[in-house]
Amino acid sequence: MNTQKPRVVVTGSTGAVGRQVCSRLAEEGYHVLGLDRRSGISLNPEVTLQTVDLAVADLRTLLTGADIVVHLASGVQAHDVEEDPGHNMLAVAERLLAAADTAGVTHFVIRSSAMVYGAWEDNPVPLTEDAEIRPCPGFRFAEHRAALEKIAREWAEKNKKRSVSVLRTAVTVGEERPGGLARVLESAKNIRTEEGDPMGQFLHADDLAEAVICVVKNNFDGPINVAPDGWMSSALLAELSGPVPRIRVPAFIARLVASIRWQIGLTDAPASIVPYTIYPWIISNDRIKELGWKAQHTNEEAYVVGYEPKLSDQLNAGSRQRLAFIAAAIIVGFVISGIVRAFREPK
């Protein structure tokens, strides 16, 4: 009887998650080929790494003989607002799926995001995988992930022997540095609205890597949420993030200020992310726990890993209060100037 493990191709193999996935798959006996635009060093000598650009490489040749593809290449970033921020990452995914079709790949794994559920006032807490996919309009990161899910599902539906695992993850952080999404959300939360306070879920990169291993070993088909147990309250988030001045304003002002801050380069958080700092998008992890997965890091532990100390952490209470007053004055100035410009623009 042939008990040889399948061959797995992993994209994004030099990232915090990709390196762990490649190493762990090799430990489980899989034959692993890692692909990435950046060169890197494997954590496991049994892993083969190759530096390629997925947008132009001969993917059919690279995927020849592969049984499983794990697509972790980052794609659209949280701060992107353009339709095509450099590489058309959906076109890249379509190239990868076409190559997988030719190569006879039977299992495809993609990294999506819990943000595809959108942040809406009527969202249940927590959201299960049966919830409707409705990313907040204009937020390219979430819209891209929803579109990626759609084309992967269409690929799987062409052949009954195929399966696709869609990992809808909480905000993921690694040991080296906070992820881009975590940084953008933190920046956006500095302007708070009167509509609500954000709850938080944070996933350690190592736990996401184990989730990938879990769905590969179980040949899981369908969407699956990935997050630690529970979530963090807005009060706990504020406590752990340190003494950062945060201004609470009406929602329409928060959106206007976010847009102005973005336009003049004060933040990398686009205004379209604001709903995700107000309304809930907390996810349930029951489905993946049923497969045997369990997070080794709590939300709090993962958040602390991704937290970058700020200058304001070193200020005393009086200095922080003065800083808050200055920030409030600047915000008012932005709002007034924005309103004036709006009235002066020709109709």
Secondary structure: elements and pairs:
Elements: E1 7-11, H1 16-27, E2 31-36, E3 48-51, H2 59-63, E4 68-71, H3 89-103, E5 107-111, H4 140-157, E6 163-169, E7 171-173, H5 180-188, E8 191-193, E9 202-204, H6 205-217, E10 222-226, H7 234-240, E11 247-249, H8 251-263, H9 286-290, H10 299-306, H11 317-344
Helix pairs in contact: 1-6, 3-4, 8-11
Describe the fold and architecture.
With 347 residues, the chain is an alpha/beta fold. The chain is built from eleven helices and eleven strands. It has helices at 16-27, 59-63, 89-103, 140-157, 180-188, 205-217, 234-240, 251-263, 286-290, 299-306, 317-344, and strands at residues 7-11, 31-36, 48-51, 68-71, 107-111, 163-169, 171-173, 191-193, 202-204, 222-226, 247-249. Helix 8 crosses helix 11 (317-344).
Main attributes of the structure:
11 helices; seven-stranded parallel sheet; 347 residues; alpha/beta; globular; 14% strand; two-stranded parallel ribbon; 11 strands
Outline:
By secondary structure, the chain is α/β, with parallel strands linked by helices.
**How many beta-strand elements?**
11
Query: What is the mean pLDDT?
Result: 82
- Element pattern in H and E: EHEEHEHEHEEHEEHEHEHHHH
The biggest sheet, with number of strands, parallel, antiparallel or mixed sense and barrel status, is:
7 strands, parallel
